[in-house]
């Protein structure tokens, strides 16, 4: 007997991207629509929550229709509806959760609430098969974490940021350099044109744990630039970018490689918006390649279009929950401070 295909319609609205997607069997993207708000927020130098929520309201119905049309499907072809319910901006999350709950109630289709970070990690599933146990470095504007993944639904954070996330630090130093939000891509490009001449601090790199701290690096960078302004010294923007990125990449790669040596995962996954950073991708790939064969994991770097917030990754994660029989009900609500581990909480 031919196994029935499972199609999930997914919603993502945790920050400043409104996205819908139809995912087949947790591996195939049949459609992916992303309505970006970057231009609306650039003039403010960052995301304004109220503005983000209004934009989500304006487009979410239309892009739902577009996702179904692009996938050549109708509601009768959909098996479940998935949505990010945290972490993120509470107003933005509520738009997606409300849309998904309305669709679930109107169609009778089961509802699956998905952790945003779980989604970023499961974007890897859309590129290649994940062999478990796996280890993920999740790096974005709001989160910097090392996550141990026991199986498709069990996640354990073994390292977290104690203050600024790496992506947040990129945006903050970008403002000092006059780079429009989001600053990560430009800083990465500049870094490849400069040299690490400033030797900024590598906080907590030699600590025994897997936690991170980037506030000291951010302060050191800003103080260097402010001091130069006061004495009318012009600093090379490419060297500044290269020095900043070298510090971030050194810390992230050092702790990740140490975690791989300790936990010996079969797969390593890089996830989150900063996973699009060329310097980080190159460094981790190189260092993992140099590991002994008996502990060298398979490496999955998500496609660049799946590094940012998108509904495809939510659909991929939701498929795993669907297979495990983990569903949400009409009481599902936005949780802006949601944290992994996931499955243990949902099964309580």
TrEMBL record:
Cofactor: record remark: Binds 1 Fe(2+) ion per subunit.
Cellular localization per UniProt: Cytoplasm
Reaction it catalyzes: L-threonylcarbamoyladenylate + adenosine(37) in tRNA = N(6)-L-threonylcarbamoyladenosine(37) in tRNA + AMP + H(+)
Binding site for Fe cation: 116, 120, 309
EC number: 2.3.1.234
Span of domain Gcp-like: 31-315
Chief location bin: cytoplasm
GO MF annotation, one: tRNA N(6)-L-threonylcarbamoyladenine synthase activity
Swiss-Prot/TrEMBL cofactor(s): Fe(2+)
CDD domains reported for this sequence: ASKHA_NBD_TsaD_bac
InterPro entries (alphabetical): ATPase_NBD, Gcp-like_dom, KAE1/TsaD, TsaD
SUPFAM superfamilies from the UniProt entry: Actin-like ATPase domain
Family, per entry: Belongs to the KAE1 / TsaD family.
Cited function: Required for the formation of a threonylcarbamoyl group on adenosine at position 37 (t(6)A37) in tRNAs that read codons beginning with adenine. Is involved in the transfer of the threonylcarbamoyl moiety of threonylcarbamoyl-AMP (TC-AMP) to the N6 group of A37, together with TsaE and TsaB. TsaD likely plays a direct catalytic role in this reaction.
Protein name as it appears in the record: tRNA N6-adenosine threonylcarbamoyltransferase
Protein encoded by which gene: tsaD
